[in-house]
Every structure is written in structure tokens, then in C-alpha cells.
Design a protein that fits this description.
The complex is a heterodimer of chains A (118) and B (476). Chain A has 118 residues and is α/β, with parallel strands linked by helices. In chain A, 36% of the residues lie in helices and 20% in strands. Chain A is globular.
Chain lengths: 118, 476
């Protein structure tokens, strides 16, 4: 499967924008939203090939969003984004394809996407 | 209509569920204030008052509503009396064990299965652990809640069971497909897995043996899951309520007692958490900006922003490490090889500053300590020493076994500890370094204390000296 469209869900607008701009430079079509309640709806509308999902959102937990997305579309990969590594071993996190620390170079996301293409 | 006595006066003051005017169950007094009325499918749920937290109150109302729904649509496996007794139990704050026993017992007595169990999810270890197990033995129902605890189902890989839990499905698997320990002692046929949820997600599973002789419809199985879930939810809420009541009493008593420091630590930790995200975007955008800036001075400013962000990130990490209440994991460690690794770790810095490291440690000395935490101590202390030595110096580490423990002495030929540190050793946030957090020594102190050991620091003729004593009491 070739990844073209990426949906970013992060309640921090600046962090979302950072990833959005970064991935756009690599030629991806990117959409970012800051309200996790809109995630499922946006997922339907935008039909992404990949979702970058923040875990720590005060309004709605990223792991809850993950459950909702995976229930409707288990095959679209979801990468969890987090500032801390405490969720790494967690039952719901098991259903995300990757787990990315925000402090790491965003290049890692592009590298991971490359791997999907193979 | 059935009246229930002995209601919990804090958690639930008044609860009434009725269908078309015929009360299914009624608890409490009419005089209690009615907060709100909810109507679900012809059933009236008249309020639950007295919950400290609206969200949780709705959780319970929601749970009851779902049970009603299942009663209406599903096979009636439990009669009203059983359900009333059930609600009576949760309202009266019966322990979760009793509630589980009650629910599972009715699975067997209503002929849904011959064997059944509840397993709870350990979210971090990715395991399901047995809590209770019941089986029919002739006329009796045998109950077991001790040995079943050693029975575990492994979830570290996605599989049929994990899928059932994640996607909220009821599945049937053969007992041999259950990955884990000791399962075959309890289930030796096909097994139905029913996930149990609360508002945060999956909390466990109910297992039912399926010997193929009993008809089971989905709604009945769901009802079981809802009952267990409601029981767990309710007992955790009442437990919280009890704890917060105790907390209030405690704080009233010791309102001035020095919880300030712990409190400060908590606040600091949550502030540190909040700072992390902005740091990611500041550092990230500064890095991106490099590509749009060609001016050399501009580029050097961006480098400063980036290096300062990295420094802030380090500070935040230190604070988080310090404020974490950590558990130490002791193992038998060769201090000699641990120190050798560290010398390797600092190789470059030591070379640049032409610093010699002398390690005097018996190669066969084994300490019973947490190696990762001790590595952190040595890293912090050696870093301090390297920073305090201008150029050309020496760091000496002496390790010896004494009568009731191990002594470690670290000396350097640097500038020695500043007076502020000697006066207030190990106090967090005391620092004289421009880039320091003042947490390095505090972290060392915390780790040594967690090993029941002691740490001292002082200056001697040539520089700084730190002495650590680890008692051998913890050794096995």
C-alpha cells in the first residue's frame, strides 16, 4: 500500500503544524486537526492512508480515538505520538502500528512510511 | 415492589428504576432530592444523588440503562430477584470478590456453563490474570480465588483474545489457543471469551466453558459482561469515595504538616509535563527554519535556540526523573564491570581533558543493587567531577567490602563542592552551574536512600569527595 494522505490528530496546534509542514515537504497530502472529537468524522471525510495520533489529549484520550478508528478501519496504520514513553506497554497501544516519541527527529516517520511501501 | 434497607448513605441516596409505573427496583427514600430524571425505553431511571463526580454518576446510570436494555431484548437468564439482589450488593458496598462470585455463580446455576472465570487485565504487563473461578461439581458449585491467580493469559501479541477485547466481540476459542500459564488446569474444552468494559476501556474478560450442550445467545452473554463491569465500576467508585473521605479527615488533622514538599514535587512534575510539548515545537520549528535562512548570523541564532531547547528538555527530564516515585529492582551486580563500562562511557571527555580514572575495586565483589539506578549515580557524580576539573586531573574510585556492607568513595582533583552545596547537600534545585538543574546530587541521594544506604559529600585537600555506604541487609 502506498501512503499518500496523512491525517494528524494533536491538540497542540503548533506540534500538529510542525509535523504537517514537515510531511508536506516530502510530498504527502496532509491534514491536521486539533480536536480529537472530530477525528472519526475527519477520518471518513479525508480517507487517509495513515494517521498520526497524539496520545495525551485532555479532552479525549488518544487511545480512545485509536479504538474508534481501528473499529471502523483496522487496516489503516496509526502511529501514536507522545511526549513521554509511558504508554509503550499498554493494551490499547498494542493496536497501533508504531509508537513515536515527539522528541525524536520527525524523519523517523518518513522512514517508517518508506518501509510500508516495500 | 421491593424496598431495600441499609443503603449506602453517601454513594447513593435514591434510585428508582421502573417500567411503565411498575417498579423493577427501588432503593432509598422518596424524600431524597431528585436531581434529574432519565427515561430509557419506557423505563424511568430517577436519579442517583450524592455522587461527588457527575461523570461517574452518569457511568452508573449508563450501566444500569444498558442492563435494562439487555433485559428487555435478551434472553432472560437472570430473574428480577437475582438482579435486585445484585443491585443490593453493589449499593451496600460489598467487596468486588463477592460481587464477582455472585454473578459467576448465577452463570452456572442458570445453566449457561459448567465452568466460568473472571480475568482482570494488567494494562502495563499486557496480561490477563485470574481473579475467580467457579465450576459445578455434582450438586455444588466450587469456588476458587487463590490458585487461579497464578493463571495468566499473555496478550503481548495481537491474537484472537486481544482482538475480542479491543474490538468488543464475543469469541469462542479452544482452550489450547489460550497463550499463557496453567490454563489447562481450569478449562479443557472450547471457551467463550466475553470482554468487560468500563468507561476507560477494557478491564478484563469473563471466560465460560462451552461444551456445546447449552444454548447461549449473545444478549445473555453481554448481560453477564455488563453486570461484572457495573460491579467493578461501582466498587472502585465507592473505594475512591472512602479514600477521599479518609483523605479529607487526614488533611483536617495534619493540615500544616509538611506535605508542602510532596505537593511542590507533584506540581513541578505536572508543569514539566506541560512544558514538553511546546519544547518539541520550538526545537522542531527552529530546525526547519534553518532551511530558509542563509544569513550566517541568523543560522547561529537558530543553533542557539536549538541547543537551549535541548538543555530545557534535559532539565524537564531531570525533574521528571526526580519526581517519579521509583521502585528499585535489585540484582547481583559486579561493581567492577559496572565501573569499567562507565569509564568507557566517558572515554572521550576524559581524554580531551586529560583526566585519569583510577578504579580500585575487587573484581569479584558482588553487590545486591539496582544496576541501572547505580549507573545513574556514577554518571551524575563523574559528570560533576569532570566539570570541576579544568584540565589534567584525576578521579579515584575506591570500592571495598566492609563488615556490614560496601563502601564506595569517589574523589577528584577538581575545584571541590561550592559552599552552597556543602551547606545544603542533596536539596533539589540548588546549583551553582550555569546549565545545571540542581537535581543530580538529589537524584543520587534518593537512589541511595532507596537502597537503605547513606551518602555523604565533602571537600578534602585536593578536591571533592563523595562517600556512599550500601548496607548488606538487603542481600540474599
Amino acid at each position: 500500500m502506498k501512503v499518500k494522505k496523512i491525517l494528524i490528530v494533536d491538540d497542540e496546534p503548533n506540534v500538529a503544524r510542525l509535523y504537517e509542514d514537515y510531511l508536506k515537504d516530502y510530498g504527502f497530502e496532509v491534514k491536521s486537526i486539533n480536536n480529537p472529537h472530530e477525528a472519526t468524522n475527519e477520518f471518513y471525510m479525508f480517507q487517509p492512508d495513515l494517521v498520526l495520533l497524539d496520545v495525551n489529549m485532555p479532552d479525549k484520550d488518544g487511545l480512545t480515538v485509536l479504538r474508534e478508528l481501528k473499529k471502523v478501519s483496522p487496516n489503516v496504520p496509526v502511529y501514536l505520538l507522545t511526549a513521554h514513553d509511558e504508554y509503550k506497554r499498554n493494551f490499547n497501544a498494542l493496536y497501533a502500528e508504531e509508537y513515536i516519541l515527539k522528541s525524536r527527529d520527525p524523519k523517523i516517520i518518513v522512514n517508517l512510511i518508506e518501509k510500508i511501501k516495500e | 415492589m421491593k424496598k431495600m434497607n441499609n443503603r449506602s448513605d453517601v454513594a447513593v441516596k435514591y434510585l428508582l428504576i421502573s417500567k411503565d409505573g411498575n417498579a423493577l427496583m427501588e432503593i432509598g427514600e422518596k424524600s431524597a432530592g431528585i436531581e434529574k430524571q432519565i427515561k430509557i425505553d419506557g423505563y424511568d431511571i430517577e436519579t442517583i444523588v450524592g455522587f461527588p463526580n457527575i461523570e461517574k454518576k452518569e457511568q452508573i446510570v449508563d450501566g444500569i440503562a444498558k442492563i435494562i436494555e439487555l433485559l428487555k431484548n435478551g434472553e432472560k437468564i437472570f430473574n428480577d430477584d437475582v438482579l435486585i439482589e445484585y443491585v443490593d450488593m453493589i449499593i451496600n458496598e460489598k467487596s468486588i470478590d463477592e460481587i464477582l462470585y455472585f454473578t459467576l455463580k448465577h452463570i452456572i446455576s442458570s445453566n449457561l456453563a459448567e465452568k466460568t472465570a473472571f480475568f482482570i487485565l494488567n494494562d502495563k504487563l499486557l496480561k490477563l490474570r485470574g481473579v475467580v473461578y467457579l465450576k459445578r461439581d455434582n450438586e455444588d458449585i466450587i469456588f476458587e480465588n487463590r490458585a487461579i491467580k497464578s493463571c495468566q493469559i499473555d496478550l503481548s501479541n495481537r491474537g484472537k483474545i486481544a482482538d475480542a477485547m479491543f474490538f468488543d466481540k464475543v469469541v469462542t476459542v479452544n482452550y489450547s489457543e489460550l497463550p499463557g500459564k496453567n490454563i489447562e488446569r481450569y478449562f479443557d474444552k472450547n471457551t467463550i471469551i466475553i470482554p468487560v468494559y468500563n468507561i476507560k476501556g477494557v478491564v478484563g474478560v469473563v471466560l465460560l466453558e462451552d461444551d456445546g450442550t447449552k444454548a447461549k445467545d449473545d444478549a445473555s452473554l453481554r448481560l453477564v459482561s455488563r453486570l461484572v463491569s457495573l460491579g467493578i465500576n461501582y466498587s472502585s467508585i465507592t473505594k475512591q469515595l472512602k479514600l477521599s473521605k479518609e483523605d479529607v479527615a487526614y488533611f483536617k488533622e495534619s493540615i500544616e504538616v509538611s506535605s508542602t514538599l510532596t505537593h511542590m514535587g507533584k506540581i513541578t512534575a505536572s508543569v514539566a509535563h506541560e512544558i514538553k510539548n511546546p519544547l518539541v515545537s520550538i526545537g522542531g520549528f527552529a530546525k526547519r527554519l534553518e532551511r530558509y535562512v542563509s544569513d550566517e548570523r541568523g543560522l547561529s541564532y537558530l543553533k542557539i535556540i536549538q541547543s537551549e531547547t535541548t538543555r530545557l528538555e534535559q532539565i524537564v527530564n531531570d525533574i521528571l526523573t526526580y519526581s517519579k516515585i521509583f521502585n528499585i529492582k535489585r540484582e547481583k551486580v559486579s561493581l567492577y564491570s559496572l565501573l569499567m563500562d562507565l569509564e568507557e562511557f566517558f572515554k572521550d571527555e576524559l581524554m580531551i581533558k586529560r583526566i585519569m580514572v583510577k578504579i580500585n575495586c575487587p573484581e569479584d565483589l558482588i553487590a545486591y543493587i539496582d544496576p541501572r539506578k547505580f549507573k545513574q549515580i556514577f554518571v551524575n557524580l563523574i559528570k560533576n567531577s569532570i566539570q570541576s576539573i579544568e584540565n589534567d586531573g584525576e578521579i579515584t574510585i575506591d570500592v571495598e567490602r566492609v563488615k556490614n556492607g560496601i563502601n564506595i568513595i569517589i574523589r577528584d582533583t577538581g575545584d571541590g563542592f561550592p559552599i552552597e552545596i556543602i551547606q545544603r547537600p542533596f536539596e533539589p534545585f540548588v546549583t551553582t552551574k550555569e546549565a545545571g538543574t540542581g537535581l543530580g546530587l538529589s537524584i543520587c541521594h534518593k537512589i541511595v536512600s532507596a537502597h537503605q544506604g547513606q551518602i555523604w559529600l565533602d571537600n578534602y585537600d585536593d578536591g571533592a569527595m563523595v562517600k556512599i555506604f550500601i548496607p548488606s541487609e538487603g542481600e540474599v
